Amino acid sequence: GIYDQVVWNLSHGRIWETTLVYETSGYYDHFEPVLVLIAPLYWLWSDVRVVNMESQIRNGDQLLAEGNLEEARTLFQQIVANNPNSVAAHNGLARASFGLGDCPIAIEHQSISAQLLPRNGSYTVLGDIYTECGKLDEAIDAYLQAMQLDDKDVRTHFVLARAYAAKGRIEEAVAEYKRTIELDTEGGFTERAQHNLQLLDQ
Predict the structure, then answer these.
(1) DSSP-derived 3-state class of residue 26
(2) For residue 15, is it left (φ>0), alpha (ψ between -120 and 50) or beta?
(3) b/e 164-190 (16+ beta carbons within 10 angstroms → b)
(4) Higher model confidence: residue 200 or residue 11?
(5) What is the radius of gyration, based on Cα positions, of the chain?
(6) What is the tens place of the pLDDT at every residue in 94-115?
(7) Quick check: 41 and 60 in contact, CB under 8 A?
(8) Which of 33, 49, 89, 120 could form an SS bridge with 79, CB 3.0 to 4.6 Å?
(9) What is the pLDDT of residues 31-76, one digit of tens each?
(10) Which one, of 122, 129, 119, lies nearest residue 163 by Cα?
């Protein structure tokens, strides 16, 4: 109850306030800046379950980081069941399922994550999953959707080029590798793109 009120107050401009303890400061015991990140969720849902969901998602992410994929998948399945519109939960379930080699479930939930919050990164990850699962046509479609949301993302051009090359669509692969080099101001993909261009010329 204390944290629920503190976060609700944060979301309404009352910094670290609570009436549930003898001091009005929400950090009377210890300071937890992560609450600031949770506060905007209360603009959508004024419910303590938001805090619980975020805590569960952090636990799931920790399980993934530790390689406990089965436990992570079970936890994310529970979160999704209770919060079907949680982008992070669907993404976590996709990651855990992919790590366990369950392509259909990974694809299903990464697709839902991308639909709930359309952005370049979500569709690029979906394309990566399709690629690793041997579905190159679907991967290309996902990468193209990602580029519709941000056509300046270097990595998306690079992985799209690889997918085109794997499908034998050489002209399109060359064009995407060249676009990768053109956009890659930080140099993270240029060397690999140039190498792959040389291989395509052979």
Answers:
(1) coil
(2) beta
(3) bbeeebeebbbebbebbbebbeeeebb
(4) 200
(5) 21
(6) 999 999 999 999 999 999 999 9
(7) no
(8) 89
(9) 444 444 444 544 444 444 555 788 889 899 999 999 999 999 999 9
(10) 129
